[in-house]
Design goal:
alpha/beta, two-stranded antiparallel ribbon, globular
Length: 485
């Protein structure tokens, strides 16, 4: 009877996870990083690899997958099926791994936490590699633990293939290999078989390893504005609440801090008392990835796959705490708030409102209303792809008006009168996120020299980083203006 109940709960949790990952899957337009994936996916493979070697921070496997996915379609829903599918697979895998590491109750709680976790739900609906990375990370540790208990050739083969997939998916996946290697060294299990395994792994990864210095040079040029101490706090915030609850929403944050801190403390105590050999793997998974936080190019989603160790830890805490139903109910409620803000597109709660820019609606509207005699200036940066230009606005725009890339490197203010001379109306799409000062300069020029007949602003939001400086700043993300001579 107990077994039937657990099977029912597994299917119920899986059903909830499927619903959350498919609900409004194609509702939002593509985000800037999704456009980058599409841009690279549409390139010939050789040019794609060359581009990401010098201008990106990721290995080629995910972009190769997108390359072949694009042969079947390019809609938001279709392309996001890929991350949604692997996000769903993480749920039963969390159950299996939790059961393997501890017991069935922990496995059930772990799978529920993964199913509901706001960050995992969010990235299951975005065309990025994070759910793919998370899935194979879980698979890797599953087979690694299997080999520790019993060496079978099939386990070795699967572990090798999975770790190769990881290494060619995300550069931060090297930590999976490091965690497993440190465990073997400290537990004195680094046998000749493991040495041969690592040799073949290095051999298979070597072609991309040669390109890592070029990628490292690119990523070291990236700088983040958040002080290091806040970045550590934010990583934990992100792991448990995602990026769809305002960090200053104290009605949610305060109870969340109390609950998750309690469960982390309880989980640590329980892991220590269990004294299982596999627990050392968990400890390494908890703390080793945090060593990457100081790197300027590290963003929270890069470490999201490693959040599963912290989610497992709170699952252990819940399974062993006295008032487990109360704690679990509170966590479900907190997760539900964040997911609600995500699905309703609550601008005031999103950390990165660029995910909400209505490019599709803007493109559709302007496709209908613009005429061939009109001209459109866009302050977005464009890429050249197979003799055509590529940008978020142009992806959705189907009109026949001329589109000009209005960025400082390509447009001189004094040339505008000549450019617009033979055009009827002047449309300007201001992307204030890309280059706000330039957009303001351009806007003042048009307002001073032409008659504004219509305008529409999008996404009024707070600059959250300004709060750290003790002030509130708000800005519009984008604006469309129409001018006449």
């Amino acid at each position: 009877m107990e077994n039937r109940k657990n099977v029912f709960l597994v299917y119920l949790i899986l059903g909830i996870g499927i619903f959350l990952r498919f609900y409004r899957l194609g509702k939002l337009c593509f985000w800037c990083d999704e456009f980058l994936a599409i841009f690279l996916g549409e390139k010939p493979i050789s040019l794609m690899v060359e581009y990401i070697t010098f201008k990106d921070a990721h290995p080629p496997l995910f972009y190769l997958i997108v390359h072949f996915l694009l042969k079947g379609g390019n809609s938001e829903f279709y392309l996001r099926l890929f991350p949604a599918f692997f996000g769903i697979l993480c749920i039963p895998l969390a159950y299996i791994l939790g059961k393997e590491l501890l017991n069935e109750k922990t496995g059930l709680i772990f799978s529920l936490i993964i199913a509901l976790n706001p960050a995992h739900v969010l990235w299951a609906q975005i065309l990025k590699s994070y759910t793919f990375f998370t899935f194979f990370l879980l698979v890797s540790f599953y087979f690694f633990l299997k080999i520790i208990k019993r060496e079978k050739i099939t386990y070795w083969v699967f572990l090798f293939l999975v770790n190769i997939i990881l290494l060619y998916t995300h550069n931060f996946s090297f930590l999976v290999i490091v965690i497993q290697g440190i465990y073997l060294i400290f537990k004195k299990k680094l046998t000749k078989k493991w040495i041969f395994y690592y040799f073949f792994l290095l051999f298979a990864y070597f072609p991309w390893l040669l390109r890592i210095p070029s990628q490292l040079k690119f990523t070291l040029g990236v700088r983040r504005q958040i002080p290091l101490i806040f970045r550590y706090f934010y990583i934990f915030f992100y792991f448990f609440l995602g990026e769809t609850v305002n960090p200053f929403n104290f009605y949610v944050i305060c109870p969340a801090v109390i609950v998750f801190s309690t469960l982390i403390f309880k989980g640590m105590i329980e892991l220590k008392e269990l004294k299982r050999e596999e627990n050392f793997v968990v400890y390494l998974g908890l703390f080793l990835p945090l060593s990457l936080v100081p790197f300027p190019s590290t963003v929270p989603q890069n470490l999201l796959p490693y959040s599963v160790f912290w989610l497992f830890l709170i699952s252990v805490g819940i399974s062993e705490i006295k008032y487990q139903r109360i704690f679990l109910s509170i966590i479900i409620f907190i997760f539900s708030i964040s997911n609600f803000f995500h699905f309703t597109g609550r601008v005031s709660q999103f950390h990165d409102v660029s995910k909400l820019v209505p490019y599709r609606e803007i493109g559709k509207f302007m496709s209908i209303i613009t005429e061939p005699e009109d001209i459109i200036f866009s302050t977005e940066k464009r890429q050249l792809l197979r003799n055509r230009t590529f940008s978020p606005f142009e992806w959705y725009y189907r009109g026949k008006a001329t589109v000009i890339e209005a960025i400082p490197e390509k447009l001189k203010i004094e040339d505008i009168p000549e450019i617009v001379e033979n055009h009827k109306r002047i449309w300007v799409f201001f992307d204030y996120n890309e280059n706000p000062s330039w957009s303001e300069v351009l806007k003042k020029y048009f307002e001073s020299n032409y008659k504004k007949v219509w305008s529409e602003k999008y996404l009024y939001n707070e600059k959250l980083l300004s709060r750290l400086k003790g002030k509130k700043e708000y800005t519009w993300f984008a604006e469309i203006c129409v001018f006449e001579k």
